[in-house]
Structures are given as structure tokens and as C-alpha cells.
């Protein structure tokens, strides 16, 4: 019957049109269109495709020079190191990790304060004066006096001062040039006696010439 022949011819025409216009979408497993390969070559290996187009896969971004997805991303930064793969840094010390430790800055361990004068500002290290130590408190960092007498080697008495210490010697003794040890004071140089003076360690004694005797004040002669 001619009706069946017309239907068969119509179906054959539809199939041939469908195959001609839509190759690659009919049978799963066939090669992807040539445009895919071109786009892959253009943007590099780390490309993710979705229904909304294509973009770099997580952890990668476009390299400014080539426009390809070949530049790795390190979320935590690499400091002075180099990002060699997603969240993998190569550090100057040869170690690898998700980040690199920052090199010690010019301001040292405690960071910087800003010092401004006559319109110009510069970063100044937060350090304590000599004789003070830096202490962290609930209100921040402050400088406290160091008690040098805990370790100072004074021969006599040690007196702690703000930012330092001084050594003191007992009666009849004086501080040596080294500012730590004590030496005898020759009181006779100040001529405390009317006639004769004999120095002793830490003290002195007066005496009189023949025909005189020492007064009760232990200094004058009668």
C-alpha cells in the first residue's frame, strides 16, 4: 500500500536529517566536537566544563601571559615563597606547605609603632629601654624595670634603680673604679686628727705627740 511506503520514506528522511545535523549528540561515547579540543588547547589542562560554559577548575586561575588555566592558587598566600600547586607553597628554606612563614621584619618580634614628626612618619620597633623588659598584659605590651640586683655582683650593697642599679659600700669604704667592688677610704687624707692619724680598713685612729694626751673627742690633743 502506498501509505506505508510514504511513511517509511518520511522516517528515513527524518533520520538522515537528524544524523547530518546532530552528530556527536546521538550516540554516547563518540568523540566530542572539534570545538572542545580547540577550547581545551586554548585555556590549558585545568578546565572545568558545565552547562553554563567553561572555567578554571578550583585551585587554578588564568595565567596572565598565556590566558591558560595553568596558574595555581594558594588560599593562604606563600609569603616569600612560591605557589607551585593548589594550596602548596615552596618556601625559601626548602620546605613545602600550605603557606610559608613570614621572614622576621625590621621591627623584630613585637612589631612596630608609627612615629610621626613634622609631617613625616616612620615605623619604629616596639622595644624597651635598656634595663627594662617587655611584658604582655591584658592592656597590651608594657615595659617593666628589671631588678638587676638579682644578678649583679656588688661587693657591698646593691641598690636597684629605674633602668639600672648602683653598688654602695659601707662606712669607711669607697666604690672602686670598676663600680662593683669596695676599697678602703683613707680618712687621714682629710686630716681629721689634730696631731697624728693612722688609717685602718674602714676606719682611722688619732694619736698625739709626746707631752700631749688625746682628748675625749678622740681627735684633739691636750
Automatic annotation (TrEMBL):
GO molecular function, one term: calcium ion binding
Record's keyword terms, sorted: Disulfide bond, EGF-like domain, Glycoprotein, Repeat, Secreted, Signal
Positions of the EGF-like domain: 184-218
Signal peptide: 1-24
InterPro entries referenced in this protein's UniProt entry, alphabetically: EGF (IPR000742), EGF-like_Ca-bd_dom (IPR001881), EGF-type_Asp/Asn_hydroxyl_site (IPR000152), EGF_Ca-bd_CS (IPR018097), NOTCH1_EGF-like (IPR049883), vWF_C/EGF_Fibrillin (IPR052080)
Protein's UniProt keywords contain Disulfide bond: yes
GO biological process per UniProt: cellular response to virus
Gene3D superfamilies the record matches: Laminin
Database matches in Pfam families: EGF_CA
GO CC terms of this entry: cytoplasm; extracellular region
Entry's localization field: Secreted
Alphabetized PROSITE patterns for the sequence: ASX_HYDROXYL, EGF_3, EGF_CA
Keyword Secreted (UniProt): yes
UniProt main location, coarse: secreted
PANTHER family: VON WILLEBRAND FACTOR C AND EGF DOMAIN-CONTAINING PROTEIN (PTHR47333)
Protein name: VWCE protein
Origin species: Oceanites oceanicus
